[in-house]
Fold each of these.
Amino acid sequence: MSKIKVCLVGCGRIATLNVLGYKDNPDAELYAVCDLNRERAQAFAAEHGATKVYCDYAEVLQDPEIQVVDLLVPHHLHCKMTVQACEAGKHVSVQKPMAMSLEECDIMIGAAKKAGVKLKVYENFIFYPPYVKAKAMIDQGVIGDLQSIRIKMNAGVNKSGWKVSPDTWAWRMEESTSGGGELVFDDGNHKFSIARYFMGEPDSVFAFIGRTDMEGVVYEKKDGTKIQFYQDAPSVITWTCKDGNRCGVFDISWSKDMEIHTDYYACDERVEITGSKGVIWITRCTGKMLQVPTLILYKDGSTTEYNNLRDDWADSFIDSTRDFIEAIKNDRDPVLTGEDGREVLKFSLAAIRAAELKRPVEVDSMDDYKKGAN
Ligand SMILES: NC(=O)c1ccc[n+]([C@@H]2O[C@H](COP(=O)([O-])OP(=O)(O)OC[C@H]3O[C@@H](n4cnc5c(N)ncnc54)[C@H](O)[C@@H]3O)[C@@H](O)[C@H]2O)c1
C-alpha cells in the first residue's frame, strides 16, 4: 500500500516536533509543506525532505495527492482552514485549542462528518509516556478510587531551551488571533485535557485568573501598533468531576526571574494523583525541573520509581502524530476526536467564565453560552 501523503501547514515553532512522527513512518510521508513565509517553508521542506512547497493554502487543497493536512497555524485560522480542508476531502489534524469558541467546534465537527473525513484535535500531552503509564495503572486500580488531581505549571525564563521568535508570541497576546491567554486558554488546553484524561468529565469549575505584564516586553506590529506582552498568571482553577467524589486543582505560576531547566519552552509540569490506596506523581513533561524519575508510585507504605520510561516531551508528539496516521489507516477514531476537543475547550471556557463572574460555573452551561449575549 502506498504511503499516506501529508501536507504540514504552518512551518513555525511547533512544526519541528509535529514532523517527527512522519520520520521513518511506514504508513505516511511528509509530502508537502505550506507557509505564508516562502523562505521558511522552503527551509523546512529541505530539512525534512518534503517534495512540494506551497505558500497558498488554496493550492494545497487543490493538490489531489495530498490526503492529510496537519494544521499548525494561529488559533483564529483553525476553524476556517479545517472546514476548507474537509470540503476538499482531506483528513485534518488541527492543533489545540481546537478553535476559539464552541460554535466553531460545531462547525468543524459538522464539516468533517459531512465530508466523511477524519478530524483529529492534536493534543500531545495525553500521549506523554509517563502519563500513559500512570493512566494504565489507575485503570488497573493500583491507587484505588480516584480522589483528586493537582496539576502544577511553572513558567519562567528560558536559557537552555528553545529560542522562540517574538512573532510566535505576538499573535498569542491578542484575543482576536489567540482566543484567550497563553497559560490558561492556549497552553492550559493541554492541562484541561490531561485533567479530563485522568479524572473524567468536569462538573463545576471555579477560577482565579491573574494577569502580569512582562516589564519592557513590547512588540511593534507592521502597522506601528504596540502589543504589551503579558502572562495570565498567577492563576488557580479548581473543579469537581461528574463521576465519583473527585476534584482537581490546576495552579499556574510565571516566575520572571526563575530559569526553567528545559530543552523546549520555559515551562514545566508536575501532576499528583491521589486515590483511596495510593498516590502517583508524574514530574516533567515540557521541562526538566525535578531531577527524579518521571513516574513515582506511593503505595502500602513505600515508593516505587519507574526509571525506564520514554520521557522526552518530543515522544508525546511522535506518538500523537502516529496515532492519526494509524487512525486513517485502520479507519478508527483518532485521539482526540473533534467531540473530545470540544469538551476540552468547554472546560477551559468555563474556567475563564468562572473567573470573570467570580463564582462557580457548571461546565455544561457553556453549551448555551454565547460570548457577549449572556
Ligand atoms: N502541542 C503543543 O504543545 C503546542 C505547542 C506550541 C504551539 N502549538 C499550537 O501550534 C499552532 C502553531 O503554533 P506555533 O507556536 O508553531 O506558531 P508560529 O507562529 O511559530 O507558527 C505559525 C506558522 O503558521 C504560518 N501561517 C500563518 N497563517 C498561515 C496561512 N494562512 N497559511 C499557511 N501558513 C500560515 C506562519 O507564517 C507561521 O510560520 C497553534 O495552534 C498552537 O496552539 C501546540
Amino acid sequence: MMLTLYNTYSQQKEPFEPAQPGQITMYLCGPTVYNYIHIGNARSAAAFDTARRYFQYRGYQVHFVSNFTDLGDKVLQQAAKEELTEAALAEKYAQAFAADTAKLNILPADERPRASSYMAPMVTFVAALLDRGMAYEVNGNVYFKTKEFPDYGGLAHQNLAALTENAAGRLQNQEQDEKRDAADFALWKKEERPGVQAWPSPWGPGRPGWHLECSVMIDELFGQTIDIHAGGVDLTFPHHTNERAQSESRYNRPFVRYWLHNGFVNINDEKMSKSLDNFVTVHDLLTAGQDPLVLRYFLSKTHYRRPLSYSQEHLDQAGRELERLLRTARSLAAAKGNQESGSVAFQEQLALLQQRFEAAMDDDLNTENALTVLFDLATMGNKLLDSSDYAQVDVQAARSLLEEWLAIFGVANWQEVALTTTQQELLAERATARAAKDYVRSDAIRDQLAEAGILVRDTAEGQTVEYL
Ligand SMILES: [Zn+2]
C-alpha cells in the first residue's frame, strides 16, 4: 500500500513521495500568540499531530516546524488591553499555547520559530523581490506584484477577483491608493507610531507582512522545497497563496510539494467566527473540567479535511467511545495469560486488522475508517480475555497494536494515574515508611492502593504508579 494525500494544489489524492526517501519536511502555520487558542487552532494542531505521528509510525523521519506569529495588529491591540508590551504579551500566550497543546498530547514541534527573530532575513527577502522587479515601494510600504506571478491563483481554486475586491473593502484607504493592483499585498508595512514595535529597514521603520513571515522561516529552517505545508483551509487564500507567490518568485523553485488543509470547525452547527462570538478556547474548556484526553480524541477522530462539528453532545459521545477503547487497553495491560503458545488464528486476525488500519490511514489519513479498526481490535481483545484460556503472547500482541494506534490519536497516556489527595498522601507516607525500613507499613499501603486499582512499583527513581 502506498500513502496518498489530498493535495489542495492539484485537488486530488496523490501518491506521497517526499523529496528525500524516508524523510519528511513539514511546516504548519501556527497561531498568532495574542490570546488563548480556540478549538479551531487546536483542531489544526491535533489533526496534523496525528498526521505527523502516523508518518513516524510508517517509518518516516519527520522534521516538523510550526511558527508563532508574535507581532502585528492583533498583538498590538491585545497588549494595550492587557497593559503589557507586545513582546511580553506574545511570550505569555506562547507559553499558554505550549501548556494547552501539551495537555492535548500534541507533540512539540522540532522548531517553533517566532517571526520577530527573523527580521534580518525578512528584510533581505523583500530587498531580493524588489531587485527582481516583483515588488515596489511606496511611502515606506512595499507591495508584491501579484500580476507578475503567472500562477497566482493556482492554489486557491477560487474567483480571486471577487475575493480581493472583498478584502480591499476592508483595507485602509491609504493601502488601496498605494497599490497598483487591488490583488497586490504588503510585504513590508511602515510603522512610525510612537511606542509601537518596529524594525529598521532600507524603506524605513516597519514590520513584515504576515505572509512574509512563513516564507522566510521556511526558507531559513529548511532551505529547500518542503514536502508538506499544512494549515486550516481558511489559510489557502490569501495566506498560502501569497506565501507561495513570493517564495517561488524569489527562488525559482517549487515552494511546497503537498499542500494539506484541515476543514472548518462548526460550533453547535454554526461556523465558528469572531463575528458570531462563538469562540471556544481550550483554556476555558479545560478549566471547566473537560478531560483533555477526550478533547484530543474528539479533535483527531473526524477526518482532517471534513468540517468538525463541535458541541457538548459530540464531546460526550467522544468520551464514551474513548472509554470503550481505554477499558480494553487497561484490561489487556492487566491480563495474565495461562497458555504456553499463542493462537495462529488470533495472530492472523491481528495482521488483517493491521492491514485495514494502515489502508485507512494511507488513504489521505482517514482517521474515521481507522477508528473502526480500533474498535474491532478492542472487540477482539475483549473476546480473548473473556475466554478462560489464552496466551500472554496474544495479549501482548493485541496490547501493543492498540497502544501504538492510540498513540497516533494522541490518547495513549491513559496509564498516567490521576491520584486523589488522600492517595497522594498515602504514597508519600509509603515513601517515608520505606526509607525507615518499615516494610510492614509500606506493604500495607501498597495493598490499600491496589484495592483502589492502583499498582505501586519501586524503581531506582522512586515509586511509580499505574492502573492495575
Ligand atoms: Zn503561514
